[in-house]
Write a structure and sequence with these properties.
Elements: H1 2-12, H2 15-31, H3 39-52, H4 56-69, H5 75-89, H6 96-116, H7 123-136, H8 140-153, H9 158-173, H10 177-188, H11 196-220, H12 224-235, H13 243-258, H14 262-275, H15 282-293
Helix pairs in contact: 1-2, 2-3, 3-4, 4-5, 4-6, 5-6, 6-7, 7-8, 7-9, 8-9, 9-10, 9-11, 10-11, 11-12, 11-13, 12-13, 13-14, 14-15
Amino acid sequence: VATKVHVAAQKAKNRDLLAKAAEAYTAYLEVFDENTKNRGDVELNYAEALYGSRQYLEAGRTYERIARGAEKPSSKLIHDALTSYQKVATNVDADPFMKLQAYEGIKTLGTFYLREDPKAKDAPEVAFLVARSYFDQGLYDDAVKQMAEYIKLFPGHANSYKAALIALDAYARREDFDGLIRAGKNLMQDERLPDPKFRAQVSKMVDGAESRRIDDVIAVASSGAEAEAKLKALATSGKASGTVAEKALFNLYVQARDRRDIEGAFTHGEAFIKANPKHANVAAITGELAKFSI
């Protein structure tokens, strides 16, 4: 009966009928034990009925149970289970506890599959899904470690570039700009990630983090002297025309100008102009310095 309802529901693409088929399969599985003939087929039909009726968490559990019970894990069953768990994990309206269970399902099942068959053709995709789940859960410290391990295990794979960018995003999400800058500079030198476009993207992220660090220095420094000392360190940490040094120099000039420190204004203003002769602020700085000379 359950099979007939299932087939009819599939033909009609009827979600309610699929839910009834799942209920019928549940009744069958409760009555007949593990040794019953065709039980495996019924369990698979049950999982498909659950998935078709959008009972994704239970579908994932059922696919996972079948996969773990096999002598060798089936790649298709593993992917069906992971897809089911993803449906829950990525659903913004899903119950938080169900989302937590789905993420745990992705991590434990993915890890199981990789342990059982580390050289599987789809190992890079499964490993990336597992690593990504830490980031999606907001476990940013773990995400950084997972992504670093992924790059180590699958150097040169297309997902390695994604893993690197996600790791940097994890640093940004927890506002660890020093960590982002350090990791980004290492990634730009990593021989396993030679793509020029990738390195340019990382360079932009590093520049953005260094800019934020300057803003933080100005915002949280306990005194003007402390802020000035930190800005001077940033201004001299690299080429004066670099994005970070440029912003640090300009802020040093602005601070000196605003407190009427003429000597400081000339020192930092002239250093800025020399390093960035075509910058849009050069004309304004030149004019302000001229007024100080009067």
